[in-house]
Fold these 4 entries.
Entry 1:
Amino acid sequence: MKKLTFKNGDQLDAIGLGTWKSGDEEVKQAIKLALQNGYRHIDCAAIYGNEDAIGEAFKEIFDEGKIKREEVFITSKLWNNAHLPQHVAPALEQTLKDLQLDYLDLYLMHWPVAFKPDVQNPSGPQDYLTPAEAPIEDTWQAMIKLQEKGMARHIGVSNFSIKKLEDLRKKVSFLPEMNQVELHPLLQQNDLFEYCSNHGILLTAYSPLGSGDRSDGMKQDNEPNMMELETVKALAAKHRVTAGQILIAWSHQRGTAVIPKSTSEGHIKDNIAAAAVNFDQQDLKDLAALDRHYRYVTGKFFEVPEKGYDNIYDE
């Protein structure tokens, strides 16, 4: 399996386990299965509502002694209601308590959007803080302090466009080390990939399989099923793997991290096995031709122009 390397030499396995939309008992079992089957990269977030269950799995696994804490790269994310600088440290402290950890390997700002501190999911414009009330650079500076204290080895962002990264770069001295965004053959984001490469920012691909199990409220009409694309099916037959493995292998070979979510043992094993798929130049050309800038996670649910959030991805 490929590894991604941070500027200080720390590494993470390119294929990790995602935990979005996983219930408590199933995610606990999934974490154990993943670690027992070779995963050493786990992606979490406070808003997923399952970090306490994940923490139980970590404790049980690490207490066994076969896998050490320092062997596993663990990511979590700062939710939108904790962007004010005084709330950043308490948010991470709660995540560490829930996950039963002393530190994170990576802490990400989940979205470039701020809610009022008592709001978990906004019901209207009144629940948002404007960019002027909660500047991203102030949140970022608070995250830098957490890194300096050793609470997070690395810090980064999620769902940041080139424009938002560039705006931040002009205001701070330390750039995000990671940007976690939606990436797959239908949304290849080549400009963002190039920008991040040029500035030493690593990329993690979320929703690599299209996130078909997310809530209906987040879905659009007539969404394409990437597993059913003729190119993907043909490549799966050629390489004698599943369509899902082709999609994961695309991110893996490209040089980004990728975090497919699964709770079934078969899929967990298949997903990590995708590291063995090796595309030739024609395969890569065929996959490149699929790009149509199609987003499954549109971000429109956070677009509130009257509060300064008129286009989340600056498209």
Entry 2:
Amino acid sequence: MSREEKLHIVIAEMSPVLSAGFSQCLRRLPGIQANIIEVKTPTALSDCVRSNIPDMILINPTFGGIFNPEHFRAETHCDTCKIIAIEIGKLSRQAAELYDGMISVIDDMDTITKKVKSICHPQSEPVDEKENLSQREKEIISLVVKGMTNQEIADKLFLSIHTVITHRRNIARKLEIHSATGLTIYAIVNKIVDIEEIKL
């Protein structure tokens, strides 16, 4: 590729060593021209994102306490931005599912390059749409076809109603299904729910 892809990346990490290390690695990615901003506080991160939505945020999951990507997206309206966790320790599966991907502090340059490119361009590799759904999205499909409202789903999963609506919009886009009947058929065929669980 003769022309480099430009990526606007924010690194949210309080450790200057980790922040500088990731910054250097991302600037050396082949085929990518990275414009990088390093931030050290949650306020600086919010201000940075509101002024110019980045393509990607690389963030420590403990940034500002416990960072929650869903809440952050709702507050800053950065729905198109990819949020990637800096993996230092092992994240729980539930926490990991909130992120668009993870980059470990022990990843080599080749691994980081592959991860960044696949996260930025997931459509470049054909995948089964069912597999492309996150565990959270499958959970929401299950509750929708069981007849629960957005508010009931939000209460059950401890999410904001805005987050539930965003998930439902993403599900409709990924599956190209825009009716409850279509979603119900999809859920049964793909074994997300049992037919006995659905109120017909």
Entry 3:
Amino acid sequence: MSTLTSLACIGGGQMAEALIRGIVAAKLLAPEHIHVIEPNPERLHSLQQNHGIQATADPAELCAHCRVLLAAVKPQVARQVLSAYAPHLGEGHLLISIMAGISLADLSKYAGAKARLIRAMPNTPALVLAGATAFSPGASATRDDCDLARAIFDAVGASLELPEEQIDAVTGLSGSGPGYVFTFLEALIDGGVLAGLPRPHAEKLALHTLYGSAKLALKSGEHAAVLKGRVTSPGGTTIAGIQALEQGAFRGLVMEAVRKAGRRSAELGG
């Protein structure tokens, strides 16, 4: 695998900060070799103060200093932002995009056809180094490029390489998934309050229930249906609760949420 010698972040939002934190913590790169372009001066100052990164204002300077660039701006401004980099990107550059809905074809059109490209979709648990990321390489990306991307995203959680046609589905599942989980968490807490628990107690129990259940599933490697079956006794409390969820079409709604979010990802790139 090629060694990461420098990194340019185009945009300094939460996800870029999570990746900076993970890269530094994993000792992939020292903070003084990470350059950030961020239009919000307060945000840029915060990144400098908290992480010791370099601030850069000029796309040409950024491309001259760094061979690996991370595009981390909102998809709605992808064309406008990347067009400023296109004249300065060459075959020696690797551009990794974490912009939802922006395809490899879009990236090539906006940033020029010379740079090697990787499209990725991380999620917000990367902020606590527990993210899930899928990425897809462009036609000119090398195996070393993919290994480098994997090292970057593994530094903030877990990653896997997938065909690009699956990335919108990834966006609907793991990219948007934390929103569904937090909605369920809020409902679980409110359910505890409705049943008579003080809210702080309900919050603590609900948080550890979600955390423990996910950890058990990861550690055991067993199918979710098997794990569910182990806590679902005949005529017991859990099956009574699951019946209530099924009466509300809980599983169908979650499946539809993933599908609709994936479709929205495709629309953002259109």
Entry 4:
Amino acid sequence: MKTPLMMIINPAAGKGGFRRALPDALKLLSDAGYAVTLYFTECRGHATELATQYAGAFPYLLVLGGDGTLAEAIAGLMPLHERPKVGYIPIGTANDVARTIGLPKNDILAGAQRFIGGVPHNFDEGRRDGGYFNYVAAFGAFTEVSYATPQEAKKQLGEAAYLLGAVKSLSTLKSRHVTVEYDEGVLDGEFLYGSMSNSYSVAGFIDLPREEIGLGDGLHELVLVKKLPNAAAFAALVTKVLSHDLSSEYIIIKHTRRARFVFDEPETWTFDGENGGAHSEISFENCPQAIELIY
């Protein structure tokens, strides 16, 4: 008897090339002993609804889409008492989760094979005021690029679309006064950027130190970038970050189970690359080992 497998597909993700490879991928899954039931998302948030409504009847869930689709699906699993093990075939643009766990990107057949031969690993989920986030919640410099970049540009240019958007946003860079409460104390100052994350990669080109991060250790990484004194300091910092070097007096990295951010005025956030609205105060906490992620 074959093992039931729920598969959520976002037909708008990536460049749409999955349609050609999907039949062969489904045959691979069938030959490996899975009975696949397909669900296609129709709008933003639909993956959450599908996961909450149907995933409880399946021992496995396989998501084919971008990081946003995966985040929605996992958020939909959180209310369930029994959650299926989760696989991921990334066909998005930045693919931060794929970079973090070493999955093949935009290759449906390789993704299906990786799922078949993969092993479940514990993965922490993040809880925020009003919902969940999968791998990053962020405010400040460049965070608006991920959701402000037109979908068509993402399809045509891939990660380059984000970099172009980042360059355009340089003129709007500003610091804001923030008070951050976390496990070990309080940080207060002027910051260009801040985030809570459970990922080695953010925005497709910023890499956090892998040796310091455990994806299922019950901790999120709190990252803050201080206000820079001048353009030269900013240029030097960008050069270091793009070369994957975060050793700077302007960068703070803490490991924490929780964090609370308080702003002088409402600040716009992104959750897993999607616009999360403006918040004057917002809290986050780690949901330890909430999901078993197959890779």
